[in-house]
Amino acid sequence: AMRVGLPFVVNGAIDANFRRNLEQLKGFWANLVPEKFSMIETKFTDCEEPTPEVPKAAVSCFSGGVDSCYTAIQISGSDDGAIIPCPLEGMVMVHGLDIPFRQSEVFESAFQRSEKIASSLNLPLHRISTDVRNIQKQFDLDWLTEYHVFPVASALYLFSHRYQLAVIPPGYSYDKLSLPNGSNPISDLFL
Q1: Dihedral sign, CA of 182, 116, 91, 99?
Q2: Phi, psi at residue 83, to the nearest 5°?
Q3: What is the pLDDT of residues 124-168, one digit of tens each?
Q4: How buried is 38 (Cβ within 10 angstroms: 0-12 exposed, 13-18 middle, 19+ buried)?
Q5: What are the Cα distances from residue 45, in Å, to 8, 13, 64, 68, 191?
Q6: Cβ–Cβ < 8 Å for 182, 146
Q7: pLDDT for 29-85, tens place per residue?
Q8: If DSSP states are collapsed to H, E and C, what string results for the chain?
Q9: pTM for the whole thing?
Q10: Is the CB of residue 172 less than 8 Å from the CB of residue 7?
Q11: Distance between CA atoms of 135 and 151, rounded to whole angstroms?
Q12: What are phi and psi of 180, to 5 degrees?
């Protein structure tokens, strides 16, 4: 919506924290890359706050790469609130992000290897498939610098009925920060 300057419509009840984060995220990207993203209006169709009972547990996106392995190992035993406020109890691997949607055999092989890692941590590994990368061509978006974190966050949101917290493994720390970058320690906090 920000790329084409149209209002962003949210259908359904959302909490005040989501509203604040959405406004911050829009402002971050509109100011960082103003030649591509404009500040747009957000319309909410339901003003009531949801009150779901969600278990105090976390889910993390998992690619099988170094960043996601490090994150999973670092937080898998952290149920004392030192790293995240609730225990990591699941991971999600998305076919169609790092591994193209048409490469099913490659994804299946990677998923099987990742299941072994998840099993060693006593965590379930959920799978999702998407062809969302086709959107980047339609709207002239750069996958790494502008776009890749949004499908990751969307995939994790699909599990919000089971997990209270979603973790996106960091790719860069503050000392290595280069903007724009679709996933970074500043804007990832708003997702």
Answers
A1: positive
A2: -110, -50
A3: 999 999 988 877 777 777 777 777 788 888 898 889 889 988 888
A4: middle
A5: 11, 8, 38, 36, 20
A6: yes
A7: 888 889 988 999 988 877 666 566 777 888 999 999 988 998 898 888 655 556 677
A8: CCCCCCCEEECCCCCHHHHHHHHHHHHHHHHHCCCCCCCCCEEECCCCCCCCCCCCCEEEECCCCHHHHHHHHHHHCCCCCCCCCCCEEEEEEEECCCCCCCCHHHHHHHHHHHHHHHHHCCCCEEEEECCCCHHHHHCCCCHHHHHCHHHHHHHHHCCCCCCCEEECCCCCCHHHCCCCCCCCCCHHHHC
A9: 0.77
A10: no
A11: 11
A12: -75, 150
- Map tokens 């970074």 to a residue: 184
Query: What are the two backbone dihedrals, phi and then psi, of residue 11, each rounded to the nearest 5 degrees?
Result: -95, 125
In this structure, the number of other CB atoms found within 10 A of the CB of residue 62 comes to 26
